[in-house]
Amino acid sequence: MNVNEPQPLHRSEDHGGGETEDVRGWTGPVANHASSSAETPAPEALAIGRPNPFSNPTPKGAPTSAPAASSVRRRRKIRVQAAAHTFESFKHRNFRFVWASTFFSSGGFWLQQIVIGWLTYDITQSAFLTTLAMGLDALPILFIGPMGGLLVDKLERRLLLAGVLTYQATITLTFAVIVWTGMVETPYIFAYILMMGLAWVILDPARMSLIPNSVPKENLVNAFALNSLGFSATRLAAPAMGGAVLALVGPGPALVIEASLQLTAMAAALSIRLPKVDRGTLKLSSAFNELLEGARYVKAQPVVLSAMILGILPPLISFPYVSGLMPVFAAEVFYTGSVGLGLLMSSLGAGSVIGTLLLASLGDVKRKGRLITVAVVCTGCAMLGFSFVRSLAWALPALALVSVGMMLFFAETSALIQSIVSDEFRGRVSSLYSLTFGALPVGSFLAGSMAQKLGAPSATLIASVVLVSAALMFTLWNRALWRAG
User: Fold this and answer.
1) 3-state DSSP assignment of residue 109
2) Any domain includes 71
3) Cα separation of 451 and 442, whole Å?
């Protein structure tokens, strides 16, 4: 093959948007393509910076800057290609709008977490009630989660996503009026969280099912990592901004900002363009049988089933102690106000950004199952370190490490599951996977009870030991996930 002939580096095809995108790069040495092969250094020589023994020798005393410049240009090209690989899925139009919807709705969610956590603790002064409120939105998933997945499999996914986001914005604006007028009480907070939780029954399965419809299979790890990046970036910025808004104008205006972010996410969801797919007719008479069909499908996939079982651990033993107890840590351990709480929550976002960028840069990771297991163990070890911290300056990097592990786990698990399942079952499988988050209220109840009796640091210490032990024992008992590629 002539090394001077430009070769296509990558070609992407249409994946759901009705459009074909073609991105070309060029291999070969940096040289004039019209020159003869004798004047062109071999690729191997350029790669390591040595003169080519088969080319015309350089006369003694002649300047040698040109080959060095070619080598520099070659190295710069490699760096640009690596950076492009990190954001590869953004080439696809539909994925950009899925990502935008994730970004804005996640911004609203993290703002909500700050407002609810601070508002509940300010009213009740109770670690138990605060932790319970922070995890109560996962309760509807535990009872009706599979129904959301069935809706995702039978209805148009982008319209379903847009409708749920509109519902969230309406509920948030209503609660903002209650808070702004000073009528808020603890039952209102719990009612608001439960009503928002109803939306997550559909929101997560719809979003997870739209990602594989928007990118080719080889980009799934990258796409899920970038989707997590949208979630993580807002986790970094929104809590700090929310803490400042709380300190300056109070919770009412912060909730109005949350509703505006949800409406922006709705507009992004409506901009997704996918070809029409006949998904059959949703019939109440056959709904139960179709749910059972989804459950049997998961049971027949040992890797998917193992990933779901392991996925119960973070919502049960990690989230409630890290995110749920953070208002308690801020008030009782680090003695800081709403701004300090925002910084603590933002440090979790910083770790998430680092973890997702790392995973996006790695591309299609081999041995996904091993990375998933290692991520859970690393999360537990970081939680153990955080439980001993008594300084805000040390708490921030410790929480960032916790979040790196959690984001690696969730992004890689989602990519692994979606790479295995067929499209007709994506919604139901995603909703069954979301059932793992139904363990969050149980974990929040346990975390709040332990923190009330033992203190937040001791409760987190115990949880970290249990998390690491449970992950290792599960891996020794069930090797299917560990061997998954």
Assistant:
1) helix
2) no
3) 14
